[in-house]
Amino acid sequence: MAWKALILDEAQGTGHPDQRACYTAGPVQGNSMPDRAQRILKDVFGYDAFRGQQAGIIDCVAQGQNAMVLMPTGGGKSLCYQIPALLREGVGIVVSPLIALMEDQVATLGELGIAAVALNSTLDAAAQREVARRLRQGEIRLLYLAPERLLQERMLAFLQTLPIALFAIDEAHCVSQWGHDFRPEYMQLGQLATLFPQVPRIALTATADQRTRDEIASRLQLEGARWFRSSFDRPNIFYRIAPKEQPRQQLMAFLATQKGESGIVYCMSRKKVDALADYLNGQGLLALPYHAGLPAEVRMANQRRFLNEEGVIMVATIAFGMGIDKPNVRFVAHLDLPKSLEAYYQETGRAGRDGLPATAWMVYGLQDVLFLRQMMAASEGDERYKRVERHKLEAMLGLCEETRCRRQALLAYFGEQRDAPCGHCDICVDGVETWDATEAARMALSAIYRSGQRYGVGHLLDILLGRDNDRVRTQGHQRLSVFGVGRHLGESDWRSVFRQLVIRGLVDVDVEGHGGLRLTETCRPLLRGEISLELRRDRRPAGQGKKYAPSAASQLIGPDERQCWEALRQLRRRLAQEHAVPPYAIFPDATLLEMLRNRPDSLQAMSRIAGVGERKLERYGTIFLQLLQEGAGEKPSALVNSAISLADRPCEAVALAGSGLSVLQIASQLQCTEDAVYRWLAEAISDQQLTVEQVVSLPPGVLEQIQDLFLESDGALPSVAMVAGQLEPAVPVGVLACIRAALQLEFDS
Ligand code: ADP
Ligand code: ZN
């Protein structure tokens, strides 16, 4: 067999802009399929061992059998079809739902020296002809296509003339009508079974629910395929869920632990997305909005920035996320409750694909519940459908009010039993306090009942807390026997009680009306005093013993390693720019981290780092080696510095400040004066890229004192020089410029 193999050579033509190499023909040593797969894993991808079920899946497909692969996000699905495509004769066809997703994969493969092309509407006719030519020549190992393109008659006819290694159907849950990722074109992919009976097909998904899995198999005609199920646990994700009190402040407190990291913040509505993105930018963070109401170009541009830059926070509706392949998303935050555990699992699953620590953070409140129930009531669909949806929401709420390990509960919902608590979620770490809420619950129920089962939580709170206001008076509710009986608890305690009563089904919400609460049958035994009720005690927001999972960077990188780490990332950023690929296509974080830890001192040692395959060793081994050798010393690396053009320094300075370096450190790293750094950072503060707190560190009280000096005179802010003259001891003018920039912003808004 003319098995196409592993010789790196020049490839011409279109496709990836950095197409300098690809795999073409030639035999390779190693006999059995597993041996050869193992060699490709090491030589091409730079990894020593297969993960989980990868080896079995690759063997199955390489032998020509069909496979159904159920693996969580980050499990390593891509290798499961990429390696068999390299092992078999012909081109591997990968069906993927999104252009951005294809382009990222093609870029990553290009960096590995594998000839991969995405055929999509962005290529002009000449480029498409060139791709066709290369396909006929057998020069392309992986071809990425959207389903509608693959299924065009001309395309199918053309493919019939080529040797085809396999069909991989990525994000296979897009075939399911019930999920929000449904793509009608996916339904037609079943045809491949009859059109290409000899070609193995592999469907891959990170969908955890059984119904969707069965639907995939039947629609894609993969009933006879071998199924590979992995555990859906994501051990590197820390789960944290808290009641919503002041969501923005809560979010800011969380984001403060994630400085300089990329993440996604999900909100329910477009309006909320826009408002929150503005707010975060105002707080000096780099946040971009994404929702279906934005023009396509804006969405694309924001998505690109999220993928290619570091430290971008994407504020989005659920329209964002599918196929986001970015491995180093460090957190996913939910400011609103998802409508099911399936959605929660999928959305949080976008964090930590690279296996490094990541956080899934969420706040939820009664308003979310009301809103979701209202949506469900108003939605189309028969009663049975609505019942299923309602049941799913209840399971989601159950996780929120959980008193056992969150991970155990989440996995149990998907049918995976886990014997021990995980030790890596808020409940395992912080514990849960419960309290005997029997008496309080009875008061709450009675307030609902006596006021006529029509009022929302706000009014009921007024009654229980004995607030003698107009609304209460007009209704004569100050005369109710329950008026003021709840003064022994605070407002947030009562909110917590009402929320839990609703979630436990003791109280129902009138969804058609105005969120009025009414009693259900279930609450009778409690009212009659036959049962007691334990409720979760909500924790107070930040400050009172609330521990946040530290951000990945601060957890993994020691203070003495920081500088070298930043230098590695900077070098990667520069190379990514030169090659027009995302930074992680050069090396993922995990690889850089291993370099930082192991400090390889020769190319050979470098080749042992996971993620350094032959091609990358050849391209980048020397430069990273050099950097590590310099970076290992005390001095900042001239290599990185010389690599940064003068014009890029302001941007670099801002990025470094954002990741927590001091002005002195930045100045020495960029080999410039501290004054210059302050000037750039002051500009960044004006542009709301940084906050003044990120830049200046002063003894307690001094910042306020300086701010007062600036604000003393009415009218315009005094100049830096004027304030400088009044300060004893002196404060560098650069510091003053930064403080002034921040004040000016407030002035202007
Ligand atoms: P998925 O598509 O399942 O979300 P990916 O295929 O994107 O996951 O892989 C996630 C990350 O894990 C990637 O950075 C990939 O290079 C890495 N990876 C995959 N398989 C291995 C392996 N056997 N050893 C080390 N890293 C791996
Ligand atoms: Zn746990």
- What structural class should be given to the helix and strand makeup? alpha/beta
Question: What hetero molecules are in the model?
Answer: adenosine-5'-diphosphate, zinc ion
Shape: globular
Average pLDDT for all residues? 85
Give the uncertain stretches in residue-range form: 1-29, 541-551, 634-638
Radius of gyration: 29 Å
CA distance, first residue to last residue: 71 Å
Brief descriptors of the model:
binds zinc ion; seven-stranded parallel β-sheet; globular; binds adenosine-5'-diphosphate; 749 residues; alpha/beta
Give a written overview of the molecule.
With 749 residues, the chain is of the alpha/beta class. It has 36 helices and 19 strands. The radius of gyration is 29 Å and the shape is globular. Bound molecules: adenosine-5'-diphosphate and zinc ion. The site of adenosine-5'-diphosphate (ADP) has 18 residues, from helix 3.
What's the arrangement of secondary structure elements?
Elements: E1 4-9, E2 22-25, H1 33-45, H2 54-62, E3 67-70, H3 77-87, E4 91-95, H4 99-112, E5 116-119, H5 125-136, E6 142-145, H6 147-150, H7 153-160, E7 164-169, H8 192-195, E8 201-205, H9 210-219, E9 226-229, E10 237-243, H10 247-255, E11 262-266, H11 270-282, E12 287-290, H12 296-308, E13 313-316, E14 329-334, H13 341-348, E15 358-364, H14 366-378, H15 383-400, H16 406-413, H17 426-430, E16 434-436, H18 438-450, H19 457-464, H20 470-474, H21 491-503, E17 507-509, E18 517-519, H22 524-527, E19 534-536, H23 552-556, H24 562-579, H25 583-586, H26 589-598, H27 603-607, H28 614-631, H29 638-643, H30 649-658, H31 663-670, H32 674-686, H33 692-695, H34 702-711, H35 720-726, H36 733-748
Parallel strand pairs: 3-8, 3-9, 4-6, 4-7, 5-6, 7-8, 10-15, 11-13, 11-14, 12-13, 14-15
Antiparallel strand pairs: 1-2, 16-19, 17-18
Zinc ion binds next to α16 and α17.
